[in-house]
């Protein structure tokens, strides 16, 4: 690691970085870590964090003691966090020259920590590498801009753009509607260029002030890192312009949800050639088996695509999100869409992950499903024609409780991702859901308080 770390040291000095944010991702996708002066960071070459941060819920709580002590050392020991010199990003909005350095986590024996989302993705990528394959992904991130809201009991509202008016109606793909927030997105693109984030296009989506930013296709781990940094960058740019950016899966009643669509393909490492198309341009057997694996195992990994109770609101009827694992060519009503493309760009788009999903885990889960299909030669169903929303043969769990039970009961996930990870992830999500069920909603007060 000396040579890469020396390169990192040189980069920090050349950019006159005075502070380093040493971060890891928890299961929810929240960045946790420490902020250190650059000199201290270079001296210590990493940091230590309690293992317990990987079992924190989105509210900062922990799982039940019985599960906690079954998965972690009762002494609440530290894990060793080492910087990845290839995952370094400057922070353009910081007052002092500051950089984010993403870390990997290890135990005292040097073994990767099984609960770490980044390690989970690396484990899946190794499965591909051992077969001589490299997956290529291209994420599409949807999100809403809203007015800043101090009271979480109040519904989110559409922000005003440059015209001084809030958007009304559906403005899908409208250039003018996207241009309402030009000053904000100029900052976003400038900041992302400084950070080396590989953004492609900006699109106005269906909902009011709902946007989508696409990433260029590339290495799965690198893009998971980039999405992690991008979400924070987007929020910071929004705050600068006195609005908020949210990646909730369903932030506004009766408006479309926000997804993280994943385009995925595979190349042969030795030749660099894609393996999803035959010489005549038709779909290869490996491609069809990849789709078959997605169809078979997505119902088992759904909590990694839809991690919150809010995620499942995106799957309600008439919400424009597919609730199935059907596949079809150029069919956005299917959970798995095969876009029209050249043979070299043959790919499948997984339309099920929400924008609220942890990018490391969503990408890992999607690639694992496809991998299992390829190695087990799983045949897909017939491609769907027409609308797939109403089809019920290949539907998914519709509640987070049901989805978590499917994940917990799947032995093959424990075999490939690790028993500790599956148990820990399910436990964290159940703890979050129990916390949610304790909150009395405005709907209950409005319709039940004086009526029942």
Automatic annotation (TrEMBL):
Pfam families with a match to the protein in the record: Gln-synt_C
One GO process term, biological-process aspect: polyamine catabolic process
UniProt xrefs under PROSITE patterns: GLNA_ATP, GS_CATALYTIC
Domain GS catalytic as annotated: residue spans: 117-452
Entry-linked SUPFAM superfamilies: Glutamine synthetase, N-terminal domain, Glutamine synthetase/guanido kinase
Membrane-crossing segments per the record: none
Example GO molecular function: ATP binding
EC number, as in UniProt: 6.3.1.11
InterPro entries: Gln_synt_N_sf (IPR036651), Gln_synth/guanido_kin_cat_dom (IPR014746), Gln_synth_cat_dom (IPR008146), Gln_synth_gly_rich_site (IPR027303)
Protein keywords: ATP-binding, Ligase, Magnesium, Nucleotide-binding
Needed cofactors: Mg(2+)
EC class (word): ligase
Entry's family note: Belongs to the glutamine synthetase family.
Protein name (Swiss-Prot/TrEMBL): Gamma-glutamylputrescine synthetase PuuA
Native source species: Pseudomonas reidholzensis
Source organism phylogeny: Bacteria, Pseudomonadati, Pseudomonadota, Gammaproteobacteria, Pseudomonadales
């Amino acid at each position: 690691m000396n040579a890469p770390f020396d390169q990192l040291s040189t980069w920090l000095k050349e950019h006159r970085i005075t502070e380093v944010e040493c971060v890891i991702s928890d299961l929810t996708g929240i960045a946790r870590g420490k902020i250190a002066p650059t000199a201290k960071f270079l001296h210590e070459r990493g940091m230590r964090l309690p293992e317990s941060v990987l079992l924190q819920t989105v509210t900062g709580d922990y799982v039940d003691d019985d599960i906690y002590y079954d998965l972690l050392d009762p002494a609440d020991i530290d894990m060793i966090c080492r910087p990845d010199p290839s995952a370094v990003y400057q922070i353009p909005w910081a007052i002092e020259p500051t950089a984010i350095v993403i870390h990997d986590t290890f135990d005292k024996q040097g073994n990767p920590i099984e609960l770490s989302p980044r390690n989970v993705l690396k484990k899946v990528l190794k499965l591909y590498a051992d077969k001589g394959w490299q997956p290529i992904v291209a994420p599409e991130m949807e999100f809403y801009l809203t007015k800043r809201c101090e009271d979480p009991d109040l519904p989110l509202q559409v922000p005003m753009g440059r015209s001084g008016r809030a958007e009304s109606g559906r403005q899908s793909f409208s250039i003018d509607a996207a241009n309402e927030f030009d000053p904000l997105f100029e900052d976003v693109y400038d900041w992302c260029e400084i950070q080396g984030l590989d953004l492609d296009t900006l699109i106005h989506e269906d909902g009011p002030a709902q946007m989508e930013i696409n990433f260029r296709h590339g290495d799965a781990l690198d893009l998971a890192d980039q999405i992690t940094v991008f979400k924070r960058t987007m929020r910071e740019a929004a705050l600068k312009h006195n609005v908020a950016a949210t990646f909730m899966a369903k932030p506004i009643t009766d408006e479309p949800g926000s997804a993280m669509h994943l385009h995925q393909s595979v190349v042969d490492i030795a030749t660099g050639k894609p393996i999803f198309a035959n010489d005549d341009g038709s779909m290869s057997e490996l491609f069809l088996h990849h789709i078959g694996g997605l169809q078979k195992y997505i119902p088992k990994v759904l909590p990694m695509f839809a991690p919150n109770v809010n995620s499942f609101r995106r799957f309600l009827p008439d919400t424009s999100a597919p609730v199935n694992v059907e596949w079809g060519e150029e069919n956005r009503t299917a959970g798995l869409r095969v876009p029209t493309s050249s043979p070299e760009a043959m790919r499948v788009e997984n339309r099920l992950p929400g924008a609220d999903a942890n990018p490391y885990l969503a990408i890992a889960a999607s690639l694992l499903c496809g991998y299992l299909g390829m190695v087990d030669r799983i045949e897909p169903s017939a491609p769907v024609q027409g609308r797939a929303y109403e089809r019920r043969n290949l539907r998914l769990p519709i509640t987070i409780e049901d989805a978590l039970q499917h994940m917990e009961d799947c032995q093959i996930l424990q075999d490939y991702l690790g028993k500790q990870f599956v148990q820990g992830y399910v436990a964290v999500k159940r703890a979050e859901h129990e916390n949610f069920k304790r909150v009395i909603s405005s709907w209950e007060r409005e319709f039940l308080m004086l009526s029942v």
